[in-house]
Fold:
Amino acid sequence: MLVVQRLSGETMFMRLDQTDVHLTVASIRGRDKVGLTLERDRLGERRGANIENFWLSPDQTFQLDPDRSFSILQIAGDKVRLAFNLRTEDPLHRLEVWQAIVRETGGSNGSDGLSGSPVPK
Structure:
C-alpha cells in the first residue's frame, strides 16, 4: 500500500497495463466526502475517452480492477489522504512529476519501457 496526500484539484497518474489513469480530487465536502474524477485512456487513444465522476467517504474502497484499488484514508481540511493498492510494476506518480518525466525523456509517454516508481508492498 502506498499512501499519498492530495489537495482539491490535484491529480495522481497511474499506468495500469496499457491504460493511463488520471485520478483527480475534484472537491472535498466537509470531513465525510471526496468528489473524484477518474479518467482512463488506452494507450494511443485520445485523452478523455472514459471519465467517471463519483464520491467516496473515508474507509470506502474503489476497485480499479480485481487486483488494484484505492481508498480514502482521511480528510483534513483541504487535504485528502489516499491509499493505493497496486501491483509492484504499476507506476504511480503525482501528475506534475509524471509530466516532468515525460518532458525529460523527450516527450516519451513511457511506452518505451519507462517504468516509473514501483509501488512498495
Observations:
- Strands lie at 2-7, 11-16, 19-29, 33-42, 50-56, 61-65, 68-76, 79-85, 92-94.
- Helices lie at 95-104.
- Residues 68 and 86 are 5 Å apart (CA to CA).
